[in-house]
Amino acid sequence: MGVEICVEGLTKSFGHQVIWQDVSLTLPAGEVSVMLGPSGTGKSVFLKTLVGLLKPERGSITIAGQDITKLRERDLYEVRKLFGVLFQDGALFGSMSLYDNIAFPLREHTRHPENEVRRIVLEKMDMVGLIGAEDKLPGEISGGMRKRAGLARALVLDPEIILFDEPDSGLDPVRVAYLNQLIVDLNAQIDATFLIVTHDIASARLVPDNIGLLFRRELVMFGPRQELLTSDEPVVRQFLHGRMQGPIGMAEEKDAAQVEQELAELGTGASTGDGEASAAPMTPRLLPGPGVTRPPRWQAIAEREAELHQPQKKPEPEREPEQKEVTDA
């Protein structure tokens, strides 16, 4: 079972440069959350701060009842065992086989005998579809396989929290679709808390329970998926629809007057088809695939999705009352 992460008033700077400030959110236990934001807004810095690799200037991160910003290194090391991390490029050792890469955390952090290590490694490789590739080197496989190998390595210590740093980077749309399905299937199987940093809007619409957006050194919004996908917040709408009009510019920020003019022009274009897609139906949630047992949480999600997206029956046309023939007596 995953654990809840509670972030309160978190601020991180490098020298005089503030990356983000006063960030507060709660990642619910066992749920899938996505963090969006333009490039350079500190999404990867946020992941590193959550796992204790970077120290914030202010704020708290409470995990399993402990504020990790105040822990000694020895105690922080124990909390880190709750985490598994999938890095952007998989971060595999190039001279090691996939099997040895995935076995590495077990050999470093446990005293399991080698037969137990082998059982666990093959189990995780099977979960991500890599059985048969144990002896291959990272340089001999595709980018998608390297991502899956990195994910298998993140799973070997049975973490309760898994962080994904742009898992879709460098992958074609088909492999991204397979990876999204794999993430959903894994969440249904292991029930850990997932946090995914991504730029892929299609994935953000399909995969998570919750979505957040970082912009201008702050957390603009964080909440249930449907709230973000239907939000009227200008920066959220601009990012989700991938358009130029709005607060986000090439250098991240725009002049306020320019933003106001662009949004006004966008509003007038709504009737011609250039406006928002807010009236479009909500994208159906991606569900665990065939053969994956759905725990109660996912069963409830599936039932809710079925209700939301069931086809609506067209109303039958009213029938005119039949007229009786009048006969002479």
From TrEMBL:
Q: What SUPFAM superfamilies does this protein map onto? A: P-loop containing nucleoside triphosphate hydrolases
Q: Which GO terms describe its molecular function?
A: ATP binding; ATP hydrolysis activity
Identify the keywords attached in UniProt to this record, alphabetized. ATP-binding, Nucleotide-binding, Transport
* Transmembrane stretches, start-end: none
**Cross-referenced Gene3D superfamilies:** P-loop containing nucleotide triphosphate hydrolases (3.40.50.300)
Which top-rank group of organisms is this from? Answer: Bacteria
What is the name attached to this protein's record?
Answer: ABC transporter ATP-binding protein
Q: Record the organism.
A: Streptomyces xinghaiensis
